[in-house]
Amino acid sequence: MHIINAAVFLFPLANLAASTASLYDYVIVGGGSAGLALAARLSEDPSKSIAVLEAGGSGNDNSNITDLRLNRENYGSSVDWQFVTVPQAHAGGRTQAQVQGKVLGGSSAINSGMYTRGNKIEYDALEALGAKGWNWNSTFAFSKQNNIRKSEHFFPPTDVDEEALPDLTYDPTFHGSSGPISLSLQALNISRFFSNIVVPTLRSLGFEMNVDSNGGNHKGPSWNYLRATYPRLFGLSERRRRGSLKQQNASNVILSAGTLNTPKILELSGVGDPDILRRSIRSAILDFEPFSAFFNASDRERSRHLLATKPQGISTKQFRLLRNIIEETDVPQMEFAWNVATGEDEAPTLNFDRLVLLKPLSRGVVFALAKAVEYTRTLVSTAPLKDFVIGPILPSQDVQTEEDFVDFVINNSESE
After folding, report:
1. Is the bond leading into 180 cis (omega within 30 degrees of zero)?
2. Can you name the residues that pair with 84 across neighbouring β-strands?
């Protein structure tokens, strides 16, 4: 196993076969959770030679990575690629950070090791778009040994965990027990406030507890995030200085460099949309309007109007699939992340610190987020949570109309 910490990598795919440099069976570009797990699995065959190219370091001595509570200290640091958007017209002209891990373990390493699978219908959409054989059943089938569960080693809650948080729920059939990625439910840093107050409040609003969201269904409150310890691969390690990285050749090249870097590498290698390759590379955001449970009838009608016309830059098949997910399925479109912290005055504070738009390629994003912010008012005014809220509440009561909430989002929202 060869792990190469490369300061910079450009991957000239067309030149690999012509090079006389040493030949690997596999070169994996990107040492994130997926790349490292794949490398670990491939290395089970001792006859295969494998190299992993990672632009960042190991992160072993970085307390902001090893202490999961300090994950936000990683944003904008040396372990973040520090991508930034162009000024956003619908966010008050502000730029937005696009956080992506630049370290072994990738974005999982800098995001508190959070782990959850996608929704079943999203896996099925891969096959509908032409990836034959790639669907929820093929990747998660109980009858097949080689499925997604083989990537993980799940450690059930210990007696100490269950004593700290007796309401922890999970389904062991959703998880593997021998893979390279170690997973566990995080219990020791979670307040009983969630099981005693939050879950009953959500039930009052019609949401039933989700035993384990890793089974392809995300709807309802859930102990949704498992702590993921990205696999450590032991082998040779090389560090190349900028400009001195030698070419690594392989019979098989696997790109696993993340959402933003993978297409960048392809385009720099001449693989991509010819129109994009002819001009300077710039990310494009596609347009779709998400639905969610807190939209009323007029909101839904407005969204249907936005969904009536296919935006440019996306195929008709993609448009129809995404529109179906938004309009006709039970796939959640928004995630409310709760956080309870103690301030300098030792008063506990409840923050909805992440209102996460799960389908971010969206026309009407500002409108959707505004409705989510507005819905937090419903949450804090529902028993038993309302009995514990003494104020103040942000946004303030001066924010009342739809236009007020939209303005609040435009001037205060951030991306990660």
Report:
1. no
2. 97
